[in-house]
Design goal:
Blueprint: H1 35-53, E1 78-87, E2 94-102, E3 106-118, E4 124-136, E5 139-142, E6 153-160, E7 173-183
Antiparallel strand pairs: 1-2, 2-6, 3-4, 3-7, 4-5, 4-6
Length: 184
């Protein structure tokens, strides 16, 4: 076979690289749009909207100073007369029947009393708390529905569900513990 001294002509053969040339690193092409900055701005805007839309905590007001607290009704505004002990038809419950006089300047909307029941030997046998209710014949009505006006008197009942054992069955010592009212 005969060889031709002429080299074949290949059109796209890259030239050989010299031995001392090192490999070049290819850098990734960077996108020109700032996605990270845009994401941070959108997140900040969403956070601002959430904070603006959600309700805040409770709005606390300053408590009134001593001069601003309105006067409240006290136990001295209450006078009980004609107190009678009425046993309940069932169990160890009792009623105290009385007339309540409002000698204060406020409508009375609630009265709570503590009754000290004495034993046979004069030692307290126990105490019970009861709420005062307005007496209308055989029915009773809460004082919040029918307040007792200043200088008004009204028949009332106080119900004690359990009387202590060893009680001497005499009138207990009644002490007014709580009075609620409104200005008339």
């Amino acid at each position: 076979m005969a060889t031709s001294p002429k080299m074949p002509d290949f059109p796209n053969i890259p030239p050989r690289k010299p031995v001392d040339e090192h490999a070049k690193l290819h850098t990734l092409r960077r996108n020109k749009f700032p996605w990270l900055v845009l994401t941070v701005l959108v997140a900040a805007a969403l956070l601002a909207v959430i904070i603006a839309v959600l309700p805040g905590g409770p709005h606390l007001r300053k408590p009134p100073v001593g001069a601003q607290v309105p006067a409240q009704p006290t136990a001295t505004q209450i006078q009980l007369t004609n107190v009678q002990l009425v046993p309940a038809p069932v169990g160890d419950a009792v009623y105290l029947s009385a007339v309540l006089h409002n000698v204060g300047d406020y409508d009375i909307t609630g009265v709570q009393v503590n009754a000290q029941f004495m034993g046979n030997n004069g030692v307290p046998a126990g105490a019970e708390t009861g709420a005062v209710q307005s007496a209308n014949g055989t029915s009773t009505e809460d004082l919040t529905k029918a307040p007792i006006k200043p200088n008004e008197s009204r028949p009332i009942h106080i119900y004690f569900e359990h009387t202590p054992k060893g009680w001497n069955h005499e009138l207990p010592e009644v002490k007014v513990t709580t009075v609620t009212g409104t200005t008339g």
